[in-house]
Write a structure and sequence with these properties.
alpha+beta, two-stranded antiparallel ribbon, 489 residues, 16 strands
């Protein structure tokens, strides 16, 4: 037997192929389907994205270091004065022991010289306009800042918890999807087995009718049968051949559907191990109704319920995020700022800077109830999800009960069809013998053959339903085993 080759690609892609004529087991089909399913591979990326978001949220605990810089061109220079300045000066008077203004006097009268109502100083300090002009045509500036959160109202802690829950939700969602894939593969697998058994049954039924037609044709030539008998058998034989063609077409389509689920070319010829004639007769007849079920354990195993439980925790943390908007926040800020020209050296054209350290406090005072309503909305969403969680638990209780009843019903149906099968075989044997002895008509034989066909078909359906009910029960109980999932690094 040639096995399936499963090769993980660099980006999580998987190539699955089998050799023509391979015989596949149910476990091999499950493994190939799990490796090929694109939704599962997509969910692996969702898990990776959630993990990165978790690391991003943790980074908020650590100090952030940023750099900002820029360049600006200015058309004009900065000038402190519009023209040259003459500043009066004082002179120290020894007698008065203080600085006094030196006012110019009129040499003729000795009175202080006044121009435009203002005394004229005797001495002035000359300050040219160009001395206080600064070239700022080309300005370069920048700053390196460090921000360390000290208290953010609990927002950082809540976001870290939310991202942690989000990663768990992504993992639970992928696990739930994996069980859905396994269930779909099992359904297609057993449908294939069912159609293969019905193909054999249809072929046997055609052989029975063909044999009957040969006998009736011989009897017609001997004059002990009528033309009507032969035509009735021909009609039944043609109908049986049409039904066999439909079954064969359905078998090919089902084989293609299973191949598509498993991920290899749909036209690849292959068989499955349970296509043998004895496979269905070995179906386990175990009733489930007497086996006690601990619903708390079922709740723990159900990934869909786990997602809702984690969702409630996420919404509880969203309440904390909304509450943090109403609390003060405190952060430590440090910076090194520099520029060219710089203000530290008289606007010289060279880089210079200085350190600065401080704290930033933000206290929300009044927002017209906006933050409070945001908190109330988050609480309402949490309560709504709790109601959904309770409803999901009730639905799971109902699912488990229904699946248990269906499984027991399938067991009882299988036992009854097995009993009917034996009776139909005996009825056909008696009708065939009676026809040979001349005490049974052609219609009696065809009726017995139809009953035989119906009994065998119902037995096949019952045994397939037994497998499907068992798989479904395992699915709702959360015990359905799945092949290991390949993580995308």
């Amino acid at each position: 037997m040639a096995g399936a080759a499963i090769v993980p690609g660099l980006a999580g892609e998987v190539t699955t192929d089998i050799e023509p004529g391979s015989v596949l087991t149910l476990e091999q089909c499950r493994s190939m389907a799990m490796s090929n399913n694109k939704m599962l591979r997509r969910m692996a990326y969702d898990i990776r994205a959630a993990r990165y978001q978790k690391e991003e949220a943790f980074a908020a605990y650590l100090p952030a270091i940023d750099f900002a810089g820029g360049y600006m061109y200015n058309q004009k220079k900065i000038a402190m004065f519009d023209k040259d300045q003459y500043l009066p000066v004082k002179q120290f008077d020894i007698e008065k022991q203080s600085y006094e203004w030196q006012i110019a006097t009129n040499p003729m009268t000795g009175e202080p010289l006044v121009v435009n109502g203002q005394p004229v100083p005797e001495k002035v300090a000359y300050l040219p306009k160009s001395a206080l002009e600064y070239d700022i045509h080309n300005v370069f500036f920048g700053a390196v800042t460090l921000t360390q959160p000290i208290f953010m109202g609990g927002k950082i802690v809540a976001m870290n918890k939310i991202t942690g829950y989000a990663e768990e939700i992504a993992q639970a969602r992928r696990s739930s999807q994996a069980r859905d894939v396994v269930y779909a593969v099992d359904a297609a697998y057993w449908e294939l087995v069912s159609l293969r058994a019905k193909q054999r049954l249809a072929s046997s039924y055609v052989n029975l009718l063909d044999t009957l037609r040969s006998n009736v044709d011989a009897m017609l030539r001997e004059g002990v049968a009528t033309r009507r008998d032969l035509l009735a058998v021909d009609v039944k034989l043609n109908s049986a051949k049409v039904d066999m063609t439909k079954v064969e077409n359905g078998l090919q389509l089902c084989r293609m559907a299973l191949a598509q689920l498993c991920g290899f070319p749909i036209h690849t010829p292959y068989t499955v191990t349970d296509e043998s004639e004895t496979a269905l007769s070995e179906a386990p007849l175990v009733e489930r109704s007497q086996q006690p079920v601990d619903m708390n354990e079922v709740y723990d195993r159900r990934d869909d319920l786990r997602q809702l439980e984690l969702g409630v925790k996420v919404y509880k943390q969203k309440e904390n995020v909304a509450r943090s908007e109403m609390l003060p926040t405190l952060a430590l800020v440090g910076a090194y700022s520099f520029s060219n020209p710089n203000v530290f050296d008289g606007f010289k054209n060279r880089f210079a800077g200085a350190f600065s350290v401080g704290a930033m406090l933000k206290v929300p005072l009044w927002h017209w109830g906006g933050n409070y309503n945001k908190l109330r909305a988050a609480k309402a969403e949490t309560e709504a999800l709790k109601m959904e969680l309770e409803n999901a638990r009730e639905m799971i209780d109902l699912q488990v009960s229904q699946a248990g009843f269906k499984a027991d019903e399938a067991v009882k149906t299988c036992r009854m069809t097995a009993s009917n099968l034996a009776e139909a075989d005996e009825n056909l044997r008696c009708a065939s013998l009676g026809f040979k002895d001349g005490v049974m008509t052609v219609d009696d034989v065809m009726e017995a053959q139809t009953g035989w066909l119906k009994a065998h078909s119902e037995d096949i359906d019952a045994r397939i339903d037994l497998y499907l009910c068992d798989v479904y029960l395992s699915k709702v109980l959360g015990t359905l085993s799945t092949p290991s999932l390949t993580e995308i690094k």
